[in-house]
Prior knowledge:
The chain has 27 helices and 20 strands. It has 659 residues and is an alpha/beta fold.
Amino acid sequence: MQNLGEPEEPPIIPTGFHPQIVGGLNAFNGALGHLYDQTKNKNARDLQTKFCLDASIFEANMCLTDLGAIACFNDEPIQERMGINRFSPTYPLGIWPCKDGWLGVTVLTPSQWLAFCQLLGLDDLAAEPKYGISSNRLDDVDIIEPRILEALLQHKAEDLFYKGQEMRIPLARVPTMNQLFSVDQYIHRNAFSEFVEEDITFKGPSTPFRLFKTPPKFGGSSAPLGAHNKLWSIDRNSKHKQIRSNKKAVVPDLPLQDLTIIDLSMGWAGPLAARNLADMGATVIKIESCTRFDWFRSWEASQEWIDDNGAEKSFHFICVNRNKLDVTLDFETKEGRNLLLRLISNADAVIENYSGGVLPKLKLDYQTLRSVNPNLVMVSMPAFGSTGPWSKFRAYGSTVEHAAGLPHLQGSEENPPTMLHVAFGDAIAGLYGTAALLTGLLHKKNTGEGQFIDLSQPECLLPSAIHGVLSQSVLGESPRMLGNYRPDHYIHGVFPCSGHNNWILIQIKTDHQWKSAVANMSALEPFNNMSPDEKRANFIEMELSLAEWTRAKDANTLMTQLRSNNIDATVLNSIPDLLSDPHLIFREYMQYVDRDFVGSQPHPSSPWRLEKDPISINRSAPTLGQHNKEVLGGILGLSDAELNLLKEKGIIGDKPRLV
Length: 659
């Protein structure tokens, strides 16, 4: 929350249930990973092992901010709130009005900037050399943004979206809750299903990943209270009396040790999905090339960057690729492609997040891979999924958030639809990617059957919009954008404390909490004799009075005082604070692992554990091509002479090359 909102105003509290959803998703991933190792027979009733999984909701949600914490550890500049939809260093990045709606814009690379200027007729801005660099555009936002806003108002959002995507610009129409149900891509993919609860019929998000051979159920009825009680009534004399073994078995620390995953993904979402399996013991072989390396190493290369080993110094890359092996293969060549197919022939699964159409063009689509490995599980997660009219469109994590309509549920009505994060879609899609992989692999273990799994990243965010989706579907209207105010609370806000940019969140909902709050916060005493409705009607005055009172208080001391009196309160951590948060330190959340070129680096632990201690991180992220000999020589049996020849041809290597 610290980076969300205007610089001089309180940070914005997100609406909805994001923390709970992310926590539940991670609990699913951790549990399914450990269940994988239990039984080979899907009909077996006798569990071979028992375990208790500790799945922290707090640590699950760290996936959205731990990259920033690691950057701070490495002395990168601390980013503070810059305004609504303003995140350094990307610009233009925002949600802006057009003739008929809102357009989400994310322009990062020089080629995207030139295309965006061409789309809007801003040729003079395109001709300015310094604007080829995103941070320079951000520095001149006061010059550039009025021109962009003026140009956008001449067009319809949907027209710009389709034209821009044809030009390979990551644009998205930002639909309202009402518009979500009529989006052509979502209709094509059955993104919403119909559900029945007693006499109410409503729409809700469908499963965001689809197993093609065993597709999910779409919609259905919610069970009435107690409908299945009889399923829990066991006849004590029946043959099922002892359905669970009394033997206590030891759950292995790394339950996926027998799995091999080929990781063709890049950036954040796909690599995070694969990293979670590597953390549980799977052998994850990351495939890059010396000219098309993971863009988390860098968006662009120069000879100076190459000579300085810049490819090995990206903290973002290091964070999401730990515990993996790295092989360089130029699979656009025949020899490189054949070697990739040989690796895949012995693998259990492949994960990729290329733009739609890339792998089919290279003849590496699922049908081709299945010809060399009939039982392969393949998770494909291009931004918008592999089917539908948007299947080949480009997107970043911000574009994904735009397309899901989530910004229409955040912030205040006087502001534009408000983004939650510079790349909210990336991390969340990565967690669903893990779920998709594990679901497909468990099905394969039980049946021997592999299959293609299609994941849509915007559909991964629709559950985070569930409060808006249900309001629109059941009540016919979207929830109002009320900033930090919540009508069901007496106090629900973020308040300043002593020092620079120090804030505390306070929530008072019940009458019992109110009594305790009045006894501990003198600023609320003038409002004590008001009725509940009067208090809610005067929430602005109450919060202004409370803000004056908290302004002189130390945030941590106040938090401790309020919590000890059963008042919900928490200090807002800044990104650097996450490295010194006492709870995270107590749980040893950050593990420090040495790596070539950068020394000891903090690595966030998996958000699930079986014991008091976190799952150990065995090794930091690999360097480019670090395991060419181990994998190509050891697994595929290539000789040193063959490896040297491949290196001479540029098919493998351990240094980036300019194209």
